[in-house]
Design brief:
The chain is built from 4 helices and no strands. By secondary structure, the protein is mainly alpha-helical. Helix 3 (55-61) packs antiparallel against helix 4 (69-85). The termini are far apart.
Length: 95
């Protein structure tokens, strides 16, 4: 996944969010992954797709149930983007 848009130029905000997400000293890397994903969706207008083999992607590709469809779509797109940026990442165990 690219760190931004345009002929090899890196987006400064993407670089900052990626660095904070990847820094082992960051107390809540998931917050930075969420920020990085929503930045891609909102500022770069990235259109992520579900990642094959990801159970959470498959769940979001299904029906919204009791959740409003627009909310479900935003949750799904945010998860797909997070999954594309950091495949297989899960929060560190508490403790």
């Amino acid at each position: 996944m690219s760190n931004g848009v345009g002929e090899g130029r890196e987006c400064a905000r993407c670089a900052e969010l990626a660095a904070r997400f990847e820094d082992p000293a960051t107390p809540n890397p998931g917050a930075f992954l969420y920020g990085w994903a929503t930045h891609h969706l909102d500022d770069h207008e990235t259109e992520p797709l579900p990642r094959e083999g990801c159970a959470e992607c498959a769940r979001y590709a299904g029906p919204s149930g009791a959740v409003h469809p627009r909310v479900w779509l935003r949750w799904a797109r945010t998860h797909y983007m997070s999954c594309a940026l950091a495949p297989g990442w899960s929060p560190p165990a508490a403790g």
